[in-house]
Amino acid sequence: MACPLCKDDAVEFCADRSRRYIKCPRCALVYADPGSHLSPELERAEYDLHENDPGDTRYRAFLSRLAEPLLARLEPGMHGLDFGCGPGPTLSVMLAEQGMVVNDYDPIYAADARLLERRYDFVTATEVVEHFCRPAVAWRQLASLVRPGGWLGIMTLLAPDDAESFSQWWYKNDPTHVSFYNEATFDWLAEASGFKVETLDDRVLLMQRV
User: Fold this and answer.
1) pLDDT over 90 (residue 85)
2) CA gap 23, 46 in Å, rounded
3) How far from the centroid of its chain's Cα atoms is residue 186's Cα?
4) How far apart, in whole angstroms, are the C-alpha atoms of residue 67 and residue 145?
5) pLDDT score for 53
6) Rounded Cα distance, 11 and 18, in Å
7) Which CA distances in Å does 209 have to 99, 177, 196?
8) What is the distance in angstroms between the CA of the first residue and the CA of the last residue of the chain?
9) What angle do helix axes 183-193 and 135-144 make, rounded to 10 degrees?
10) Cα–Cα distance between 116 and 27 in angstroms, integer?
11) Does 52 have pLDDT greater than 90?
12) pLDDT tens across 60-76, in order?
């Protein structure tokens, strides 16, 4: 089976009671069997259950893991895009409070395609990239939105390297999570897309376009 990110040959990795998972030896992406992906209707129903709220202090604290190091690399007045903002945009509110100009985009909840026709000083994608059913297409789109010298801020939980640990990993159990990355995957993405990558912790990465 061809890897949906780098197109190299991938191999069986592991399985659980719900799905089987395939891993690419070249870019290290692990992805769920495409036959197990939810329909668009069922996927939307899962997202509608999310209760993200800009007034939720715990949610703000979670997003601050990305917001704070990203803000340290930006200047007030810079323009950004929160890609995959979901039904309750919050990160854009937090960044705007610190002097940034931020638009919200989401293919379901805020699908203004005009926002995808320009480049930004920074783009954020928090708990988004694991939902990519066609990661090669999605990552090309993300990369195209960032101007040279600009930043791409990513939040996604990094996957265990070995099959035994992965098979017990809670993050894969969300049926809308279909693409899983580790540091090697982001190293491959950075080289392929013209970025430098900084891994800040097990969930936050900053990528700068060179």
Assistant:
1) yes
2) 25
3) 11
4) 19
5) 84
6) 18
7) 22, 26, 6
8) 32
9) 60
10) 26
11) no
12) 999 999 999 999 999 99
